[in-house]
């Protein structure tokens, strides 16, 4: 399953003031310091309108557009015997990823079959086929998808993207304990381009397991890795409200509003604002957020 991101303009955000943020349920206070450090970093971020995303929205095909000057499908077909079979598999897999992004699943399947034909132990091709079958969504293909993810990991146990995508798949199938193991691998791999999303997904998976402490830890790690993580901030606001750490929840909530600038709040944020205002006895604020929520 792929990410379809809406292009937006870059928003410059001024340095945020230091806030004393306490995370409930963590004995040694280490995560409190990490969260505080993350919240005071100055940054400039581009982001889309925030929504309540499911875990299944963060799979990666890792497919970057192939430049025509670098590669021609026709040339590869004519000169196949002159090319490295693994390189052919890589190119076919990249093309398949581009087709998947366009939801052209039949064309993607043909490219992946050619990749397998060229080099049968190319792990990214198996991972890509798993993503393709999951995106199709039919019961038969959902069942088939798992064997491709597992095959990719068997071929290359250090293939982080396959661990992430398999974790997303397992979460979709409601196999949350297994999903957490795979997402933990992806979220712990330094240098992995999808690490923040993996940590966000890990936190959401722990929420499904009713493990709020582990979820909070994962979201703090995501925020530490990328101070721009809106998902982590919003999830932490809900968790802090839940344990009645209202002042700390308000601090993070105000940071989210600062990041948004002039952008309107989405319904989830309006609800959070109403809850925080209610807990603080701010009747006017509660009525304002509630009115905005009802108007959506």
Query: What would the CATH topology of the domain at 83-157 be?
Result: Serine Threonine Protein Phosphatase 5, Tetratricopeptide repeat
What is the CATH class name of the domain at 83-157?
Answer: Mainly Alpha
In round numbers, the mean pLDDT is 83
| Main sheet overview | 2 strands, antiparallel
Helix-strand category: mainly alpha
- Please provide the count of β strands: 2
- Strand neighbour order, sheet with most strands: 1-2
The share of residues in extended strands comes to under 5%
- Helix count from the secondary structure assignment: 14
- Sketch the topology as an H/E string, one letter per element: EHEHHHHHHHHHHHHH
Shape: elongated
- Report the span from N to C terminus: 29 Å
Task: Report Rg.
Answer: 22 Å
Helix content: 55-70%
Which parts are unreliable, with pLDDT below 50 for 5 consecutive residues or more?
A: 1-25, 40-53, 65-75
- CATH superfamily heading of the domain at 83-157: Tetratricopeptide repeat domain
């Amino acid at each position: 399953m792929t990410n379809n991101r809406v292009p937006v303009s870059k928003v410059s955000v001024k340095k945020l003031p230091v806030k004393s943020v306490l995370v409930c349920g963590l004995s040694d206070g280490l995560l409190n310091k990490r969260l505080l450090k993350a919240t005071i970093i100055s940054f400039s971020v581009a982001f889309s309108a925030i929504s309540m995303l499911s875990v299944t929205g963060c799979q990666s095909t890792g497919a970057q557009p192939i430049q025509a000057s670098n590669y021609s499908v026709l040339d590869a077909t004519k000169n196949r015997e002159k090319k490295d079979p693994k390189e052919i598999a890589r190119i076919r897999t990249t093309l398949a990823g581009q087709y998947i992004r366009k939801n052209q699943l039949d064309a993607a399947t043909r490219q992946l079959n050619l990749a397998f034909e060229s080099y049968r132990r190319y792990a990214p091709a198996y991972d890509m086929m798993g993503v393709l079958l999951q995106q199709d969504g039919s019961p038969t293909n959902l069942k088939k998808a798992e064997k491709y993810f597992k095959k990719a990991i068997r071929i290359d146990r250090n293939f982080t993207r396959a661990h992430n995508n398999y974790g997303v798949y397992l979460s979709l199938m409601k196999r949350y304990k297994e999903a957490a193991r795979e997402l933990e691998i992806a979220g712990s791999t330094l240098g992995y381009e999808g690490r923040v999303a993996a940590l966000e997904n890990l936190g959401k998976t722990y929420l499904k397991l009713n493990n709020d402490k582990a979820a909070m830890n994962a979201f703090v790690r995501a925020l530490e890795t990328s101070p721009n993580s809106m998902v982590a901030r919003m999830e932490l606001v809900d968790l802090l409200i839940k344990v009645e750490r209202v002042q700390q929840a308000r601090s993070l909530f105000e940071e989210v509003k600062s990041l948004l600038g002039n952008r309107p709040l989405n319904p989830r944020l309006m609800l959070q604002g109403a809850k925080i205002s209610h807990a603080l006895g701010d009747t006017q604020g509660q009525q304002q957020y509630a009115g905005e929520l009802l108007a959506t």
